[in-house]
Structures are given as C-alpha cells and as structure tokens.
Design a protein that fits this description.
The complex is a heterodimer of chains A (389) and B (65). Chain A is of the alpha+beta class. Chain A is built from 14 helices and 11 strands. Helices cover 23% and strands 22% of the residues of chain B. Chain B is globular and about 30 Å long. The N and C termini of chain B lie close together (6 Å). The chains are: A alpha+beta (389), B alpha+beta (65). The interface between A and B is medium-sized, with 21 and 18 residues. Chain B: InterPro entries: 3Fe4S_ferredoxin, Divergent_4Fe-4S_mono-cluster, Fe-S_cluster_ET. Chain B: GO terms for molecular function: 3 iron, 4 sulfur cluster binding; electron transfer activity; iron ion binding.
C-alpha cells in the first residue's frame, strides 16, 4: 500500500503513530510525497545510516524536470546540483568551508556563545515569570551566534533573521524563493562591505584566502546562515520542552551539570522527528531491504524514524538525558556530515547548562500536548514555549 | 592492532576525539583527525572499535599488523 505524506503528528514531541506502523512492517516503503510524486521512504536506522553515506545516491538528478519532489519549496525538496560532477563539487565546497569550523575556531567562539546566552538569560530574568522561552531565547540566540561567526553587523540581524525564516518556509514557495533571493543579495552586499573593512569573521577570511569569487562567498554565506539558523532555533525550544516535560530531568541537570553533554545528544535525538526527510536520488539501480530502487527514484531518508528505531535505541520514545553513546543521525553520516555539528553542540551545551543552573524551578506553563510545531518549518520549530518559574 | 586514520577521507566531524580523546585529536587548521596513539593497549580496543563504527566518513580503521 502506498502511504501519503506527511504522516500525521499527534503529539508534538513524539513520532507519528503511522510511522511506528510502517517501521513494524519493514525498512523501506512506497510513498507519495506532499505534491503527489512517487518516492521511497526509508525508516530503518541501519539502512538510513548506510544510504546517507552511499555515493550511489546523490542530490542531483540526470533529468531534474522529471524528478519526484518532496514538495515545492526551494531548498532540499527537489534535485540540486550537476549530476555529472556533484560529488566533486561537494568535496570542493566542503574543503573550502571546513577550516572555518575547525576546533580552534569553534573553541574561540565558545566564550562569545556563553556571553550571548548569559545576556539573553539576564533579560529573561528581568522580564520575569511567565515568559515565552521560544521568543526570549531559542529564537534570538542562533541568529546572534551565526551573525558573530559570519560577521553580520548587529543592526542587520533582525532583517537577516526574517529572511532566513522566509527562505525556510515549506508551505509557501513564493515566500521561500523571495527569501532566498534576498538572502543572496544581502550576502553579496555584505561581501562587498567586508572587502573594504575586513574583520575576524568567516566572510573576511574567505575573502583573504583568495580562491573564491564574491559570488561563491555570498552563496556560502547564505547556505551557512540557512543551515545554522532555524535548525538550532528548533533544537533549543524542543530540547527545553523535552526536559521540562519531565521535571525530574530538568532538576537532574541542575544538580549534576556533568549530565549536560549527554542531555544535549538526547535533545538532538529525541525531538528531531525528521520533518519532511532528507531527499536523495538513486544514481543507479540498488537494492534496499527487499526492494529494488531504480536509478532516478527519489529516496527519502527519515532521520526521525532512524533516531527512534527500537533496534538501536532502547525505549526510543523515552527522553532520557543520561542516555549513553547515542549514535543519532541528526547531523547525518558520511561525507556530508553536518559541518556545523560542533557549533551546534557548543550552543546547546551553553544554553542547557545555564538555563538549568539559573532557573532550577522552571516549568511548562501549558500542558505539553498543547505545544504547537510550525507546519511552515522543515524542522517543526515550536510556535511558542510558555514557561513559568 | 594498529589504528589507521585517513586524513583524505576525514570530514572533521570530531566523533573520534569526542569518544576517545586520549587516542585522537583534531587538527587546529581544518578539524581533520590527528592520531595520538597508533597502537592502543588491548583494553582500549573496544573503545577504538566504537570509534571506527561511529566515524561518519569511515576514516578510521583497524589494521592487523
């Protein structure tokens, strides 16, 4: 039977019941995407992990106009790149960007991330209980950090944040396209400005390296912003929601801050329900489970499903801040492993160490079932997170 | 057993340094793997196998020699 996507999400922090049903039947399933195109949905951890790193799949399609699509938004819903050169192209971009995310760079950024977190929490304290944690912390922090990293001037950050949200809209293709165009234009203006006033930031360093055109730098800027922004906004809000939904775990973190790193890995695993999934196109015929996938077929890797596969994660629906060695797939696997993974970890660790330390009595101000995730966002960002203390 | 780390394949994910920081480090320049210990003690092998399995790019392997 062919399943229609998206699967209905009943609880804001739990995988859709229909997904559990699919997982009990196999690891790969014929589906129709939101726009009615045929595709395969992969729901088994081992298969997702293998396929996400498998060069026989790619983002490009030999005949892009004929390719199935996840939806009609701009980024990551259809084929991208040149079929003949995609792997080499990606390796080149990776090599260009990777030095900017090296451990030394990230370490240098950590105190800034901590200071920005402290400022936002000072403000939250002044505001007093009750408050919307999504608006007060989860929303603003990642923008501030990415602005710091890229060297986006302070006065531009609201605009930057607005464009990024528009670009990521999965329900409104016109808004998404407009947002992306404006981000790119903004990136180009910023690159021109950095040419005159170099500073200690990624754009300035890319310019100084001399092997990238202004256009490429603007494109990288836009992608880094886009990839690093809403994903983290989403994780902070959802992570806080998971911890607050079980006051014992919030308290445990407060009492024992050494739990923060494992709590962060669990925050990366548990509420990441995969959104629309990672789209890949088979570059050749291949076998997955008992199915033959044909060259050109759309294969959707459901990271959320993999992260909740009971064969790998004991009691997968339970949020457990002390879970050890959790091999979640939230940052992907293989050559395209998230370049910002360390930065995301730094941000999340700073947030949850500080939040639980300073607000030991924080609790949800609404029942957890009432929390709503935005249907416009591929990461299912929370619309609000009312808390009191 | 000898640990082999392939810098050309490495994507700088840092899982090795995170899992076994006394055996692996990351280069300051580009985050790629730096092997600190080539021949780990036998009681560390289980940890190395976990590193091999968790490395996203398959840059870490164990050789028999």
């Amino acid at each position: 039977m062919t399943v229609q996507l998206p699967l209905e999400q009943v609880h804001p922090l739990a995988v859709p019941p229909a997904l559990r049903d699919l997982q009990s039947r196999g690891v790969i399933h014929p589906v129709r995407t939101r726009v009615g195109h045929p595709a395969w949905l992969v729901t088994g951890y081992e298969e997702i992990r293998a396929l996400i790193a498998d060069p026989r799949l790619g983002r490009a399609h030999r005949e892009p106009d004929k390719a199935s699509r996840l939806g009609d938004w701009m980024l990551f819903s259809g084929p991208m790149g040149d079929f003949d050169t995609e792997h080499d192209d990606e390796a080149r971009v990776r090599a260009q960007l990777q030095p900017h995310f090296a451990p030394g760079r990230m370490r240098a950024l950590r105190p800034r991330v901590e200071a920005l977190t402290t400022d936002l929490l000072d403000e939250l304290e002044r505001h007093g209980s009750p408050a919307d944690l999504q608006e007060a912390l989860a929303g603003p922090l990642p923008v501030l950090v990415i602005c710091e990293l890229l060297g986006v001037p302070y006065e531009d950050r609201d605009e930057f944040s607005k464009l990024s949200r528009a670009a990521g809209d999965i329900l409104d293709p016109a808004r998404s396209e407009q947002g992306l165009m404006e981000l790119y234009e903004y990136g180009k203006r910023l690159v021109e400005r950095k040419r005159d006033e170099a500073a200690d930031d990624v754009i300035s360093r890319m310019l100084q390296s001399g092997d990238l055109s202004d256009d490429e730098i603007a494109m990288h800027t836009m992608m880094l912003l886009f990839a690093g922004h809403e994903t983290t906004v989403s994780q902070i809000g959802l992570g806080a929601a998971c911890l607050l939904a079980d006051p014992g775990q919030w308290r445990a973190l407060h009492d024992d801050p050494s739990l923060v790193p494992s709590a962060v890995e669990e925050i990366l695993r548990a509420p990441s329900l995969g959104g629309p999934g990672i789209p890949r196109y088979a570059r050749e015929d291949l076998t997955v489970g008992e199915v033959t996938v044909r060259a050109g077929d759309l294969v959707i890797l459901d990271i959320g499903a993999g992260n909740h596969d009971g064969a790998v994660f004991a009691d997968p629906d339970r949020f457990d801040a002390s879970r050890k060695d959790s091999p979640h797939l939230t940052f992907g696997f293989g050559a395209r492993y998230c370049i910002g993974a360390q930065l995301a970890r730094i941000e999340l660790q700073a947030v949850f160490a500080d939040l639980t330390r300073r607000f030991p009595d924080m609790r949800l101000a609404v029942p957890v079932e009432k929390l709503q995730r935005s249907p416009h966002s591929s990461t299912g960002v929370l619309l609000s997170l009312p808390v009191e203390w | 057993m000898r640990i082999v780390a392939d810098k050309d394949v490495c994507v700088g994910a840092g899982m090795c340094a995170l899992t076994a920081h006394d055996l692996f480090e990351q280069s300051e320049e580009d985050g790629t793997v730096v092997l600190v210990v080539e021949r780990p003690a036998d009681d560390r092998l289980h940890l190395v196998r976990r590193v091999v399995d968790s490395c996203p790019s398959g840059a870490i392997t164990l050789a028999d020699d």
